[in-house]
């Protein structure tokens, strides 16, 4: 498929942190495909299988993890990229890598670690994902990290404080000047939203924390449910949920494509440079954005703030803070690889952020055993 003039082109990449020989053309891999393959083979990517999305990994085999979420994001992003003539390889690499820096225990772990780091530079999971691919992975003889292309790293860093952006050189300039990343990066961000909103509905109903009757409060759900039942009046239970979620994803994806095409036609960018200095071009229409936001508010109130989820959140937060305090008191208990940097607190943050749910739980149980043994 030919790429649009404003798509990211492999031969126009701004390069890698460390110069490498160009891969022979007979291998068939362009720079963004190499990035994707490096991400998939990384240790951090494998760990996503045992990191919480909403429900703890041990609560059920059918709930999403960070790994399955990342795969769903990549699928949605590639499908949209194809329709917009954007670079599918780049959008896939960004989608697969976007959560590499997430802590164990989902947002509860992230909030707890950020609280521990509030006097030491804070914790931003997007910046952590960048640290993973730039420094923390150890796979190559000549450099640390995965040495990914600028465009993939740009897409991984969705958010960044201006203070941290100033330390990142070219990669941080857009946060200082208010510029945009590539369309592929913008698309991966919206595909992330589409994926987690809809699979959280599925997981919420499966868990019993959400009911189909509750979901009828949400206009987007209610409208698609009516259409489904018009065609399949006897449909109920899991099949009904799956069918409605499928319809919602279709509505969101279709609107995203049409609205993005409309915005692009108004700006008429001739290159990726024009994209970066324009306003955000990938997005939903005002009507669908309002409906998607209503769904997010509903999930926040009824799922993420559900007493059962909150109890898990408090327990997870306590474990993260206890581990942080322990390593702060006994830095020699950190693995040797995390004793290299001068900044003790950042070293502790790196170590804890890389833990899976079950490893963090085991380490916490060791602390309890030691304290009460």
TrEMBL record:
KW Ribonucleoprotein (keyword) present: no
Keyword field: Hydrolase
SMART domains: HDc (SM00471)
CDD domains in UniProt: HDc
Residue stretches making up the HD domain: 66-197
Stretches with biased composition (Basic and acidic residues): 10-21
Region annotation (Disordered) ranges: 10-36
Gene Ontology terms for molecular function: dGTPase activity
Listed Pfam families: HD, HD_assoc
GO biological process, one term: dGTP catabolic process
InterPro entries: dGTPase (IPR006261), dGTPase-like (IPR050135), dNTPase_2 (IPR023023), HD/PDEase_dom (IPR003607), HD_domain (IPR006674), PHydrolase_assoc_dom (IPR026875)
Record-linked PANTHER family: DEOXYGUANOSINETRIPHOSPHATE TRIPHOSPHOHYDROLASE-LIKE PROTEIN (PTHR11373:SF43), DEOXYNUCLEOSIDE TRIPHOSPHATE TRIPHOSPHOHYDROLASE (PTHR11373)
Membership in a protein family: Belongs to the dGTPase family. Type 2 subfamily.
Name of the protein: Deoxyguanosinetriphosphate triphosphohydrolase-like protein
């Amino acid at each position: 498929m030919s790429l649009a003039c404003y798509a990211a082109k492999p031969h126009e990449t701004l390069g890698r942190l460390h110069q490498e020989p160009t891969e022979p053309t007979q291998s068939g891999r362009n720079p963004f495909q190499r990035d994707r393959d490096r991400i998939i083979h990384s240790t951090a990517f494998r760990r996503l299988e045992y990191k919480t999305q909403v429900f703890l990994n041990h609560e059920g085999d059918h709930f999403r993890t960070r790994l399955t979420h990342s795969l769903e994001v990549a699928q949605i992003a590639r499908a949209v990229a194809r329709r917009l003539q954007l670079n599918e390889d780049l959008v896939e690499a960004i989608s697969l890598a976007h959560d590499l820096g997430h802590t164990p225990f989902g947002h509860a772990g992230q909030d707890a670690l950020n609280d521990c780091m509030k006097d030491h530079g804070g914790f931003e999971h997007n910046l952590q994902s960048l640290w993973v691919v730039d420094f923390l992975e150890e796979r190559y003889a000549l450099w640390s990290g995965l040495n990914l292309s600028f465009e993939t790293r740009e897409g991984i860093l969705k958010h960044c404080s201006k203070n941290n952006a100033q330390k990142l050189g070219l990669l941080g300039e857009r946060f200082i000047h208010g510029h945009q990343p590539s369309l592929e990066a913008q698309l991966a961000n919206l595909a992330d939203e589409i994926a987690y909103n809809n699979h959280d509905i599925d997981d919420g109903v499966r868990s019993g924390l959400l009911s189909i009757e509750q979901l009828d409060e949400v206009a987007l759900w209610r409208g698609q449910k009516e259409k489904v039942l018009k065609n399949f009046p006897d449909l109920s239970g899991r099949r009904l949920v799956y069918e409605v979620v499928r319809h919602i994803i279709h509505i969101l994806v279709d609107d995203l494509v049409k609205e993005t095409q409309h915005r692009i036609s108004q700006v008429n960018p001739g290159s990726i440079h024009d994209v970066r200095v324009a306003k955000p071009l990938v997005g939903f229409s005002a009507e669908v954005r309002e409906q998607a936001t209503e769904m997010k508010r509903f999930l926040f109130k009824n799922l993420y703030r559900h007493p059962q989820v909150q109890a898990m959140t408090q327990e997870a937060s306590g474990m993260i803070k206890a581990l942080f305090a322990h390593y702060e008191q006994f830095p020699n208990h950190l693995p040797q690889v995390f004793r290299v940097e001068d900044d003790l607190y950042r070293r502790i943050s790196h170590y804890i952020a890389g833990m899976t749910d079950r490893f963090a739980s085991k380490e916490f149980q060791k602390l309890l055993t030691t304290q009460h043994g």
